[in-house]
Fold this sequence. Notes:
The complex is a heterotrimer of chains A (166), B (96) and C (288). Chain A has 166 residues and is mostly helical. Chain A has helices at 11-143, 149-165. Chain A has one domain. Chain B is mainly α and 96 residues long. Chain B has a single domain (2-93), classed as F1FO ATP Synthase, CATH 1.20.20.10. Chain B has three helices and no strands. The radius of gyration of chain B is 21 Å and the shape is rod-shaped. Chains A and C meet through α1 of A and β2, α2, α3, α4 and α5 of C.
Amino acid sequence: xxxxxxxxxxxxxxxxxxxxLAILYFLFKKFLFARVKAIVAKRASEVTAEYDKAQKATxxxxxxxxxxxxxxxxxxAKAEEIIQAAVEKADNRSEVxxxxxxxxxxxxxxxxxxxxxxxxxxxxxTIKQEIVDVSTALSEKIIGREINMDDHRSLIDSFIxxxxxx
Amino acid sequence: MLxxxxxxxxxxxxxxxxxxxxxxxxxGIGEGQAVAAACEAIGRQPESQSxxxxxxxxxxxVAETTGLYSFVIALLLIxxxxxxxxxxxxxxxxxx
Amino acid sequence: xxxxxxxxxILPIVxxxxxxxxxxxxxxxxxxxxxxxFFTIDLPLGGxxxxxxxxxxxxxILSLFFFCLFLTHDLKTKDISxxxxxxxxxxxxxxxxxxxxxxxxxMGFGPFIAAIMGLSAMTSLMSVVGLFPxxxxxxxxxxxxxxxxxxxxxxxxxxxxxxxxxGFTEPVAFFAPVxxxxxxxxxxxxxxxxxxxxxxxxxxxxxxxxxxxxxxxLVFQWLPEPLSSIEFFRIGLPAIFSIxxxxxxxxxxxxxxxxLTMLYVSNGxxxxxxxxxxxxxxAKENKK
Lengths: 166, 96, 288
């Protein structure tokens, strides 16, 4: 007989197939699972290392950024200070200038006023003189007699003074 | 007479194999119910389809076992039993 | 290099076909037989017949071994090739399945489950190329089932022999014989399930092929002589049926065998007792 029965049990064949499965288990373990797991673990460690590196780099960058921000902040403060100082200086100067100009203007005004006053006084004096002269001449003509020039003058002066006072 | 006895043995084995396969009813009904329940479950929760399908296949495989036992018995009755029984008969008659 | 390994992976299957053509006589008509015996080695307990099923399973192991080497030679961490993607996918999928069905204590079971699935599926699928499917031999699946039974028992014994023996008296001592019987029924039911499914598939294939042959003889008998002897219906049509019986059923049975292995091992393992025992041992060692 050259063929097995459909249902025939042979202990050796069972053992052989048992060991077949065990051998395939070891083959799979050694050549598929161990290798793949090793490579996956390696990749995972590499990724972790890369990640660590990236984190470190980020931290460094953050530090640099912080320092630069600090610097920029101080620079800002400095600039502000400078501007403040400049503004103050400018303010001072402008105030001084303003003060000076006001002073000048006031002095000019004062001078002008004094001039005007003096001129007015002069003019008053001249007008008075002239009025006196004119009134003297007029009264001479009207009265027809010579009045004592000096008496006359004092009279008119007092009159005018009175007039001016009233 | 011997031919009749051998014929009886062969016929009995064949009838026995046929009767053994009646057990195919059980797994058929059981698996049908399992699939019906699985269809209902999938209809109710379509998102659980993969889990239900896996479980159903497992359950069907386990339910099929009785049917396969009967199938193996039928195979034995067809392929192994006749030779054995005829040998036993011949030995009992002292012809071998 | 990778092409060479791929060829080496396919070569065993080709060798199987060549061996079948050279040594196995063609079967005439309807005949359901077991594997062809090449030769028998004299050993006690009935001798060892080297049959098609043994040769085919060795060829499958060789093929799977070279396929593993093909997938996993020169793995890289960057710029991975498609081979490596496939290899990693296989490993990940199997590990995920093991984790889902057995829990993280049994993570070492990945290769075992992969071996069961690969060997079972590949030996069943050999019938696609016309070879004898080794899984339709009760000895082959019986061997696997017995190995699985050993593994189950080993994990049951991990919590001590007393716990193992006590497990048989659940729920009452009266059930002990039934429990023992059901314990030993596990490998039988696993083996017969796989064997019966594959064998029924191949028997139905034979029946379909012979029916188609008879039908084509009936239909084409009016043709002239050389043409009428060709059985036209047997060309291609049986392949359609073999899609279910060989491809689907073979893969399904492999999956179910692996699944049942995982469930039996993880369910049989008395986890609570094991950890209790471990904690006790630790405590004792610490005392010393």
